[in-house]
Amino acid sequence: MDILFGRNKKEQLEPVRARVTGKIPSWLQGILLRNGPGMHTVGETKYNHWFDGLALLHSFTIRDGEVYYRSKYLRSDTYNANIEANRIVVSEFGTMAYPDPCKNIFSKAFSYLSHTIPDFTDNCLINIMKCGEDFYATTETNYIRRINPLTLETLEKVDYRKYVAVNVATSHPHYDATGNVLNIGTSIVDKGKTKYVIFKIPATAPEDGKKGRGPLKHTEVFCSIASRSLLSPSYYHSFGVTENYVVFLEQPFRMDILKMATAYIRGVSWASCLAFHGEDKTYIHVIDQRTRKPVLSKFYTDPMVVFHHVNAYEEDGCLVFDVIAYEDSSLYQLFYLAHLNEDFEENSRLTSVPTLKRFAVPLHVDKDADVGSNLIKLASTTARALKEKDDQIYCQPELLCKGLELPRINYAYNGKPYRYVFAAEVQWSPIPTKVIKYDLLTKSSLSWGEAHCWPAEPLFVPTPGAQDEDDGIILSAIVSTDPQKLPFLLVLDAKTFTELARASVDVDMHLDLHGLFIPGTAWDVEKQTPSQEEQGRAVDHGVDPRT
């Protein structure tokens, strides 16, 4: 287990050619770019939680049936400060960093003061976001880092707060057909209010091509939703969109702002200030993108924890959305490094299995409907929405499938009716063991698995000119608990889920979190730079941006 979690990973700064077995389709050309934690020990200090580790970018460049791999740590301010001090000096969500005991009293006092209203880390380890012509490593704080997707070089740090008043933001934005970015963040006690802010970053801006990051300067607030609690806003990891609506879950997995403000003094982490309140409801907010206002109806469901929305769409006057839901917050707890030992697979068990659930909410509520009546008349789902006395609507989901996480779809179907979910199989242990294709229509599934192999999030790449939703390729980076087995990039036929090829690399590969695929055909693999023609094509091509 230490092979995958406890030991720092080595960078592979120069491209290394993979050994390909099988045949990669000739049309598959481009870069699979991924992100995740790779370093958990700095000097004599260790992070407490796996999600705190320093960001390690890695990429697979695919060209003419060959694959080249490279990896590089994100040179964030956090990374540089830690490495220079040879100890952890910047706090992460699950690890609070304290001053060197040799520092004087004034340094210590300043450190305590700065953590009362914390300036969060720029250790952007969760995902990759495309914004205009640029790519950014992202996390859930107000910071993102621009990167070079070819060389994995770290470029400038961007603070969302310069453009929109948010203290945290998701690493799972959405993209429309023209490349505009839609995301959501939390503005904490700003002008006496705590609210969830939906903001939009345009794909292009008038000054594009000039000095400066044009699109970000034109970020606009799309809509704001008041938090039900001033000092205990909801934690969330993603949200859903359709052609006309945004769906956001205000779940009873909440951050206690007062506890966070005093966490440093009390000697606890910020993560300890996050708690699941099983006695509360999960509130479903639906925002009309045309009016930029929430719909008036009040929807809620049972308490749950959702990290990943799968998809959402509109059907016959209803909004249908699918999520991976837990009954509690046990998932986060299991990834503390103290639990990730040789007995992890045997002893670490989720108290709630991740379940694919489908919800349906009526977009136009009949005020004359009887109390207790089901407002959902769709033949395609058994999800219900029951009208209550106080005009609230209680939503009961359809349970579709258990044991899925890290869901992906064919992003061309994002916000539209769809059929297939590609995911990692996760049962009572939070570690993925198989790659799965789940058919929402037939309720059947296909899977790929191999002994001692842990697959990363599967990413769908469509075949050029594809007509069918599942006409394409699945890519997943595979690591192994067997030290004698090399890690590899898995290439599956998305229709049949048969293995087409694998590209094995003799490197120290880490278990990653999320990423994207950048299509292209003229990469200079040795220099990892594209031709002038390809630079334009890489920007204009339909990059699969799903996170």
UniProtKB/TrEMBL annotation:
Identification of the protein by name: Beta-carotene 15,15'-monooxygenase 1
Gene from which the chain derives: BCMO1
Region span, Disordered: 527-547
Keyword Iron part of the UniProt annotation: yes
Obligatory cofactor(s): Fe(2+)
GO molecular function annotations of the record: metal ion binding; monooxygenase activity; oxidoreductase activity, acting on single donors with incorporation of molecular oxygen, incorporation of two atoms of oxygen
Alphabetically ordered keywords of this record: Iron, Metal-binding, Monooxygenase, Oxidoreductase
Binding site for Fe cation: H172, H237, H308, H514
Organism: Sus scrofa
Highest taxon in the source lineage: Eukaryota
Note accompanying the cofactor annotation: Binds 1 Fe(2+) ion per subunit.
Family designation: Belongs to the carotenoid oxygenase family.
Signal peptide start and end residues: none
Pfam families: RPE65 (PF03055)
Biased composition (Basic and acidic residues): 534-547
